[in-house]
Amino acid sequence: MTATPDSARPTLLGQLKVAGAILGGIVVLLGGAYGMYYVSVGRPLLAGDHEHDFGSVVLEGNSSSFEHTFDLANRTRRTVHIQEIKTSCGCTVAAPSRTKLEPGDTVQITATLSLRHDGRKVTKVFLNCGDDGIDVLRLEAAARYKQRLVVPADFAVLQQGVVVERAIQYHDYDSDETPPAPRITAPGGVKATFTQWRQLRRRQPSQSRSARWFGRLRIEQVAEILTPNAALLVRVGDDQEVTVPLFAKASAPRQGSRVGSAATRPQEK
Q1: pTM for this entry
Q2: Is residue 136 a contact partner of residue 72, using CB atoms and an 8 Å limit?
Q3: Is the separation of the CB atoms in 159 and 184 below 8 Å?
Q4: Using CA atoms, how far apart are residues 244 and 263, in angstroms rounded to an integer?
Q5: How many Cβ atoms sit within 10 Å of the Cβ of residue 243?
Q6: Which one-letter DSSP state was computed for residue 148?
Q7: Do the beta carbons of residue 110 and residue 67 sit within 8 Å?
Q8: Pairing of strands 51-59, 149-150
Q9: Vertex 119: Cα angle to 92 and 244 (nearest 5)
Q10: Most exposed of 112, 153, 217, 258 (fewest Cβ within 10 Å)?
Q11: What 3-state DSSP class applies to 34?
Q12: CA 37 – CA 34 distance, rounded (Å)
């Protein structure tokens, strides 16, 4: 076996030079890739804040909307045209105060975020400026329900001697412990009870999601005649209550009618 001369063996310095050259090449490639990515997703073309966090917001009713206006300016030396505006979610709409910006001009982009469910929401607005690129605006909110005690059905139709069940839901943002049993106030001639709570979802504080609990109300008309304007009042804690209107079968509203919210008179904590 022929021995390799010491002069032909790679030195430590040579090995470090090769490794450095390889590492430098990788850095250049990554830098180029990042630059292409940065441009493709929307390098800030217009000056101004491109992000807004609504923070913790309260959802009232079936849907709540939150509006913010972005103040942007054309700090380039050329005319910029906003050709199109798109959003990453159907829950967001946006409109510009103008679409043509001469150097030094300002524009207001009014964005509205509409939410129906609790939790953290992030959405984006894309300003397509043609050959000049795309500007990206970002909206964020952490939503909570104001009315945390809910009976999805708007009313209950009763018939003497027949038990009617209605689902009931409770959202708890503070604990995963079982909520107290609801306190039920029933009109004369009506008997109402509650089945135990069952947890459908644990809390997710980082996502602003509540613990979700499910139970059932059992309602029975025991009297021969139901009193006019009869209603069931259900309370949990000191600040959450719902009213469930009750109707005799002969005078019941048509299916799908809304006779008033089943979630009424909430008071915020």
Answers
A1: 0.70
A2: no
A3: no
A4: 8
A5: 18
A6: -
A7: yes
A8: unpaired
A9: 100
A10: 258
A11: helix
A12: 5
